[in-house]
Design goal:
With 108 residues, this protein is mainly β. Helices cover 13% and strands 33% of the residues. The chain has a single domain, classed as Roll (SH3 type barrels). The protein has 1 helix and 7 strands, in the order E-E-E-E-E-E-E-H. Strands 1, 2, 3, 4, 5, 6 and 7 form a 7-stranded antiparallel sheet that branches. The model has no long low-confidence stretch (mean pLDDT 90).
Length: 108
């Protein structure tokens, strides 16, 4: 089976392994070319909130209301770990999460 075509801004259920479980994740990376490694950079959606400035709550019908994207947990996985597409964030919501990720990575 071919790997799913993921796009920046989409939210997928992703298999993060036994310790991290299967959870929604926001795709941050761009679509790969055939010669690239088939990897996807993600920010997981978690209900284990700590109240940090890197947690971004987003309202979407396909996400839990009492959870947030945690920009301190940016990770890269093989694209085959993407299980099912849940939906896509609005441009404004994606921008909010990107802003938190840039803050965490000291890019702003």
């Amino acid at each position: 089976m071919a790997p799913p075509k993921s796009l920046r801004g989409e939210v997928w259920i992703v298999d993060l392994g036994m310790a991290a479980k299967i959870r929604p994740c926001l795709v941050l990376s761009i679509q790969t070319e055939p010669v690239d490694r088939v990897l996807v950079s993600l920010i997981p959606h978690t209900s284990s909130l700590q109240g940090t400035r890197f947690e971004v709550k987003v309202t979407a019908k396909f996400l839990k209301a009492d959870a947030a994207f945690d920009a301190q947990q940016i990770l890269t996985v093989p694209q085959v770990k993407l299980v099912r597409r849940l939906g896509e964030l609005s441009a404004a919501d994606l921008q909010q999460v990107e802003r938190a990720a840039k803050l965490w990575l000291a890019l702003e």
